[in-house]
Amino acid sequence: MQTLTSADGTRIAYVRAGTGPAVVFATGAFNDHTTCAHLAALLEPDHTVVTYDRRARGRSGDTAPYAIEREIEDLAAVVDVAGGRAAVFGFSSGGNLALAAAAAGVPVTHLALYEAPFALGTLPARPADLSARLAALIADGRPGDAVALFQTEGVGIPAALVEQLRTSPGWPSLVAIAQSTVYDATITSVLGVPTPSMSAVDLPTVVVTGAQTWPGLPESAAALARLLPDARHVVVPGGADHGIPAEATAAVLRELLA
Asked: Are residue 147 and residue 235 in the same domain, yes or no?
């Protein structure tokens, strides 16, 4: 991986591959650059693809105090190393971030928003105080409890299932990036409904959901597509449990970028 330095001095780790028009991949909660690696590889033959670790996860650093503006600056820096302008694929809360970055003037050419959890349609809003409660748990030395809280109240996973997940082999890796849950909770509450400037983003946009995804996300995506000036809602086969079916999604991206 390579690294860049964001505006506030934070180290951001990224992987850049391929040649051609650039696509940057911004992922969601509990994700790092590997989440979209397969999807990026499918576009690599004729696109420059850049995946990165958002701050406080993977090989990226973190600098206090946090603000959504700092993450927009991170994404702007990644777009810069991608070639100065790029399409952005935003997955889950990365979709909220991508739309906010475009509204803030980051040189985005196209947007693909995959199951961004906007509180539209039937999808409920995240608790406004969730980020504060997560931060308090982490400050109290309870990062595992913060992960569990985000999974129940931020994602909607049943508490009984979360207790089972605590004993899974992957749990320590989630605890290691518990601080990032504060940031995802901030983004999905503060930007849980598109702001007027976000709603006015007039870029070619696809709002994508998987056919087998969680309840509420398809209705939210359809409402978002109606809200944006140049957007359409696309449903791809598969996508169980908020996952990304890479081949089908790559086909949608290729059509958007053609």
From this structure: no
Question: To 10 degrees, what angle do helices 179-190 and 68-82 make?
Answer: 100
Beta-carbon count within 10 A of 5 CB: 11
Q: 84 and 169: one domain?
A: no
What is the chain's pLDDT, residue by residue, as a tens digit (258 residues)?
999 999 999 999 999 999 999 999 999 999 999 999 999 999 999 999 999 999 999 999 999 999 999 999 999 999 999 999 999 999 999 999 999 999 999 999 999 999 999 999 999 998 999 999 999 999 999 999 999 999 999 998 999 999 999 999 999 999 999 999 999 999 999 999 999 999 999 999 999 999 999 999 999 999 999 999 999 999 999 999 899 999 999 999 999 999
Alpha-carbon span 34 to 38, nearest angstrom: 8
Q: Are residues 78 and 33 in the same domain?
A: yes
Range of the domain at 253: 2-121+193-257
Taking Cα atoms as reference points, which of 62, 68, 89 lies closest to residue 234?
Answer: 89
* CB of 45 closer than 8 Å to CB of 14: no
How far is Cα 37 from Cα 246, in angstroms, rounded to an integer? 9
Token readout for 151 is 């999974």
CA 155, CA 157: separation in Å to the nearest integer? 6
For the question of whether the overall pTM of this predicted structure is more than 0.85, the answer is: yes
Q: Which amino acid belongs to residue 149?
A: L
Question: Would you say 75 and 102 are in contact if contact means Cβ atoms under 8 Å apart?
Answer: no
Exposure class string for 192-224: b at 16+ Cβ within 10 A, else e: bebeeebeebebebbbbbbeebbebbbebbbbb
Residue for token pair 């509990």:
30
Q: Are residues 136 and 84 both part of a single domain? A: no
